[in-house]
Design goal:
There is one protein chain. The protein is α+β, with helices and mostly antiparallel strands. The protein has one domain. The chain has five helices and six strands. It has helices at about 5-15, 25-30, 50-60, 90-95, 115-125; strands at about 35-40, 45, 70-75, 80-85, 110-115, 130-135. Strands 5-4-3-6 form a four-stranded mixed beta sheet. Strands 1-2 form a two-stranded antiparallel sheet. The two termini are about 20 Å apart. This is UPF0216 protein CL1_0908.
């Protein structure tokens, strides 16, 4: 008989089927004629070229090779009222979108207040996605 934890983990997997099976780099997507990524459920997600170019304008030349798209905004059971972004370049992008970037305080992971989610999604609707995490 499955435990409550097993059931919860299966449900988390189900609600995360919208996530990409593989996250390509920004430079790879910019080189494609029709930038898209295959999702875990087998469907395709298409990126707006204008968003990809906006991301390109926020980054240094070498960072374009490092940024994985879409940027994952993690909603966790542990950090209520916050969302998490992982990756130094990914955090830099979100900080710049939120106009809070400090080059002296670059981090590989950061928590943001959840009320900032609509602001991020308004600017980057096709290049960000949610992931639901049970910790």
């Amino acid at each position: 008989m499955p435990t409550a934890e097993d059931i919860l983990n299966r449900e988390i997997v189900r609600v995360n089927l919208h996530l990409p099976a593989f996250r390509p780099t920004l430079s790879k997507l910019l080189a494609e004629e029709e930038p898209r990524v295959k999702l875990r459920d087998g469907s395709w997600h298409y990126f707006r070229r204008s968003e990809l170019e906006y991301l390109n304008s926020l980054l240094d030349e070498n960072e374009v090779e490092l940024l994985k798209v879409p940027i994952v905004l993690e909603i966790s059971t542990v950090h209520r009222g916050y969302f998490r972004v992982r990756g130094r370049v990914e955090v830099k992008v979100i900080d710049k979108v939120l106009e809070s970037y400090d080059p002296l305080d670059e981090q590989a992971e950061r928590l943001y207040h959840r009320y900032l989610l609509p602001r991020v999604r308004r600017v980057l609707p096709t290049t960000t996605t949610y992931a639901f995490i049970a910790e």
